[in-house]
């Protein structure tokens, strides 16, 4: 007879989160919801230490964490001065004058096992089929400044809208703080002056605040921003620098008043030596100019930003310095880094808040006991590193696949060596129109498709299965999709009206 295994457990009882902001309060909210009274959670932050607070655009995955936290969408939008987001418009990236959108949701509709775009590529090869954007309901609604929540288009099999949000990051952190404290999270005000480690194994025992208060814990989450107070300052995780692929290392940001329509999409407009974001909120517009300091001075970057605001500036511009990359290990001993403490990816595809969310999801799934199994830590780091690297490759694609000749910056980006995985993906698409999503990488085939086509990477072939559809059937198939999407987009309410109803 086989005896049942005896599971020895030494559970983590206390978690200390260092740093507030979006990362800290997301972590506190999620852990409090997931573990309830089984976990004592303390968050340490100082009002004297500012937060970056420019991460105002998201991708649809944020709705998963909001649903997990049982957050009412309307209440969330009211509290954060939020608006809806259907995609990201890229202006002047391929060539000056180009404009395309990475719209959320599906493009057209697959036939059997063959993705839709192969049928569109066949039609385009014969001078038909129209623009790829004609088959995106999100794009057709967004470009008309309209919005509605819709699961399907009429009674068809076409999927409806898929949305994310723009919001004020500081208001979002405040919103989450209220919920976390109501769930029992303890907030401590103070600046950390010392990190105490065990002599036997180097694990963190606790931290000491500037007033002498000592706070101990079993497990520590570093949300201290770029400085990585625990993960780097105490544990020396190391940092992998990616500026040879993503050369922008500065951003200058300033909010402005509304001067145009309340667009349901983010704008990313390429400039001489970088790009500028524009994010519409209910009460203001968020703006920032991301640039390479090797190609542009801070004064020039600030002048470009201010010259391209749609309304009056509401605050003085402020400069952020960063190094794109990631920690060599995001979990070391009994400490996990989240948010800017784990690495930095410029906000070109609005991934900053998603990386906090995915790190938290991974952490809950792999939550340790007090033995802190090295195999578990290694798997967390492997998955985290894979996710960062694949997002990095997607961002590099935007810079590398350009045909601009107006500045040294764009020529340098086009001529630079790129990661092998990205080079292989571009070559495969260019040769055959095929795109494959590897494992659980963030961006889907339709995301890659829109950016590849938008950046003028043209396939030389399409899947041979697409030739199996009779010419008249292909024409009718494409025409029906375009008609259904255009008709639905034309009768939706304006984004401004939709937001006004929520705000009321």
Count the E strands: 21
Gyration radius, rounded: 24 Å
Overall morphology: globular
Kindly name the structural category: alpha+beta
Spans of at least 5 consecutive residues whose pLDDT stays below 50 are none
Bin the strand percentage: 15-25%
Going across the major beta sheet, what is the strand order?
Answer: 5-4-14-15-16-13-17
End-to-end gap = 68 Å
In DSSP terms (H or I, runs of 4 or more residues), the helix count works out at: 14
Rounded mean pLDDT is: 95
Main pleated sheet: 7 strands, mixed
Q: What is the helix content?
A: 25-40%
Q: How would you explain this protein's 3D organization?
A:
This protein has helices at residues 21-35, 62-68, 73-80, 116-125, 137-142, 169-182, 298-307, 352-365, 374-400, 408-415, 420-432, 445-454, 471-490, 495-503; strands at 14-18, 40-45, 83-85, 87-91, 99-103, 164-166, 186-189, 192-197, 204-209, 214-216, 219-222, 239-241, 250-253, 266-271, 274-280, 285-291, 318-321, 325-327, 331-332, 335-337, 343-344. By secondary structure, it is an alpha+beta fold. Helix 1 packs parallel to helix 6. It has 14 helices and 21 strands.
């Amino acid at each position: 007879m086989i005896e049942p295994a005896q599971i020895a457990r030494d559970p983590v009882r206390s978690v200390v989160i260092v740093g507030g902001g979006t990362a800290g309060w997301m972590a506190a909210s999620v852990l409090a919801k997931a573990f309830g009274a089984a976990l004592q959670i303390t968050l340490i932050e100082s009002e004297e230490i500012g937060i970056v607070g420019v991460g105002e655009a998201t991708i649809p995955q944020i709705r998963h964490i909001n649903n997990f936290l049982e957050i009412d969408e309307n209440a969330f939008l009211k509290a954060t001065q939020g608006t809806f987001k259907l995609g990201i418009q890229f202006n002047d990236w391929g060539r000056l004058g180009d404009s395309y959108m990475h719209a959320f949701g599906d493009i057209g509709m697959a036939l059997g096992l063959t993705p839709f775009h192969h049928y569109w590529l066949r039609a385009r090869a014969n001078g038909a089929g129209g623009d790829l954007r004609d088959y995106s309901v999100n794009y057709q609604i967004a470009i008309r400044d309209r919005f509605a929540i819709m699961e399907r288009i009429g009674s068809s099999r076409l999927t409806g809208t898929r949305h994310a949000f723009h919001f004020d990051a500081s208001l979002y952190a405040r919103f989450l703080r209220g919920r976390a404290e109501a769930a029992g999270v303890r907030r401590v005000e103070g600046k950390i002056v010392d990190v105490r480690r065990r002599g036997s194994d180097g694990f963190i025992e606790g931290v000491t605040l500037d007033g002498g208060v000592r706070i101990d814990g079993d497990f520590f989450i570093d949300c201290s921003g770029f400085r990585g107070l625990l993960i780097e300052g105490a544990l020396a995780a190391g940092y992998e620098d990616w500026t040879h692929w993503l050369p922008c290392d500065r951003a200058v940001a300033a909010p402005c008043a509304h001067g145009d329509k309340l667009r349901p999409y983010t704008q990313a407009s390429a400039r001489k030596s970088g790009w500028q974001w524009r994010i519409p909120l209910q009460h203001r517009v968020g703006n920032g100019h991301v640039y390479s300091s090797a190609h542009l001075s801070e004064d020039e970057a600030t002048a470009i930003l201010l010259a391209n605001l749609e309304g009056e500036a509401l605050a003085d511009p402020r400069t952020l310095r960063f190094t794109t990359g990631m920690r060599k290990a995001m979990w070391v001993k009994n400490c996990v880094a989240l948010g800017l403490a784990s690495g930095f990816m410029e906000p070109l595809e609005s991934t900053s808040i998603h990386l906090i969310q995915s790190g938290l999801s991974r952490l809950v799934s792999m939550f340790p006991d007090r033995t802190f199994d090295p195999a578990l830590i290694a798997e967390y780091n492997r998955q985290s590193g894979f996710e960062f690297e694949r997002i990095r490759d997607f961002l590099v694609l935007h810079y590398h696949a350009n045909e601009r000749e107006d500045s040294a910056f764009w020529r340098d980006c086009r001529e630079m060596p790129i990661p092998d995985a990205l080079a292989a993906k571009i070559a495969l698409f260019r040769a055959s129109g095929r795109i494959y999503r590897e494992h659980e990488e963030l961006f889907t085939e339709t995301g890659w498709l829109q950016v590849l086509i938008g950046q003028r990477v043209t396939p030389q072939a399409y899947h041979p299965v697409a030739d199996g559809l009779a010419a008249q059937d292909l024409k009718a198939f494409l025409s029906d999709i375009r008609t259904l999407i255009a008709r639905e987009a034309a009768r939706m309410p304006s984004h401004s009206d939709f937001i006004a109803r929520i705000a009321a």
